[in-house]
């Protein structure tokens, strides 16, 4: 089966730096993939993408060196299994709050007897290879999002769930869950919760991940021990570049 370079990089102790694609443009997804990111995550939770356009979006990333991942809209087998069947090499699942939620994620990713995934990787086998069934458990990346007060409280138990590779923190949702508006910089209480999740990941020997909004924050989070980091998304990058261009030409 085609090696998952992002998962192997993480397992070897290195960092993996990627980004999100929220626009429904294969051209944009391909452009992100050729710029040197380790992974590009097609975002079905926020933005324009959906199951109807997911296949060409994954095809666009798959012709680059970036690992094609998908953030599904919810912890439901239909989303997780369809994303994997269409060639995602990993899933990021939002709002995982309990060990039972985490076990459900694993069941949707793994084939029996370890899980409950139905056989039918119509594009997964084209991208992954004819030995997809034998290699899927080893190569597919399974990431749960810890982004609520309940998720923080249950972080260690969630990360102790067999089959979970990594956690991923959504700072804005975590802030909202803790009673703060989305903001930068994050309030001290949110940073404390982030540190608690990171410590739980370290104790469980799992990979800690987080979403950041500046290259400087990438360096800061790497220094803290995070290794799976998503920088911005395509719309934020586009708006920042456009705003800077407009600022230059108007002054």
Structure description:
The chain has 251 residues and is of the alpha/beta class. Helices cover 49% and strands 16% of the residues. It is built from 13 helices and 8 strands. It has helices at 5-11, 26-34, 51-62, 77-85, 99-109, 124-128, 132-139, 149-153, 155-159, 171-177, 188-204, 215-224, 234-250; strands spanning 16-21, 39-43, 67-71, 90-93, 141-145, 166-169, 207-212, 228-233. It has an 8-stranded parallel β-barrel, surrounded by 9 helices. The radius of gyration is 17 Å and the shape is globular. The N and C termini lie far apart (54 Å). The relative contact order is 0.14.
* Main sheet specs: 8 strands, parallel, barrel
Number of helices: 13
Head-to-tail CA distance between termini? 54 Å
For the residues shown, what is the average pLDDT?
98
Alpha-beta classification = alpha/beta
Q: What sequence of helices (H) and strands (E) makes up the elements?
A: HEHEHEHEHHHEHHEHHEHEH
Low-confidence stretches: none
Mind telling me the C-alpha Rg? 17 Å
Side by side, the strands of the main sheet go 1-2-3-4-5-6-7-8
Beta-strand fraction estimate: 15-25%
Number of strands: 8
How would the global form be characterised? globular
Please bin the fraction of helical residues.
Answer: 40-55%
